[in-house]
Design goal:
Blueprint: E1 2-6, E2 9-12, E3 17-24, E4 32-38, E5 45-50, E6 67-72, E7 77-82, E8 91-98, E9 111-112, E10 116-121
Parallel strand pairs: 2-10
Antiparallel strand pairs: 1-3, 3-7, 4-5, 4-8, 6-7, 8-9, 8-10
């Protein structure tokens, strides 16, 4: 499966952004999906995974209550709605696909998007 992320950019603290990840190739709805991010000088960390049904999601404590993951299997699209953004959310964001069940471990995901920059200014 090929993943193409879009929607990143520069936003002021307190603002919102919506990331999208378009999937092509293999059957999208067979895969768990996830968002990860990597800030400069830091290791990649999970933001949140979502099951193929969309019914199961988890969130990192740092984004809980501010970010929402969703998917549209009919359109082979994964989304990340980010609200109340903080400067510490600045990172390159990655979408990923892997076998069920969804996990928070990057090693569980075989397919990765190209990464997209999100910058939050203070």
């Amino acid at each position: 499966v090929q993943l193409q992320a879009s929607g990143g950019g520069l936003v002021q603290a307190g603002g919102s952004l919506r990331l999208s990840c378009a999937a092509s190739g293999r059957t999208f709805n067979r895969y768990a999906m996830a968002w990860f991010r990597q800030a400069p000088g830091k290791e990649r960390e999970f933001v949140g995974p979502i099951s193929w049904t969309g019914l199961t999601t988890y969130y990192a404590d740092s984004v809980k209550g501010r970010f929402t993951i969703s998917r549209n299997n009919a359109k082979s699209m994964l989304s990340l709605q980010m609200n109340s953004l903080k400067p510490e959310d600045t990172a390159v964001y990655f979408c990923a696909a892997g076998p069920e069940p969804p996990t928070t471990e990057s090693a569980s995901y075989a397919y990765w998007g190209q990464g997209i920059q999100v910058t939050v200014s203070s």
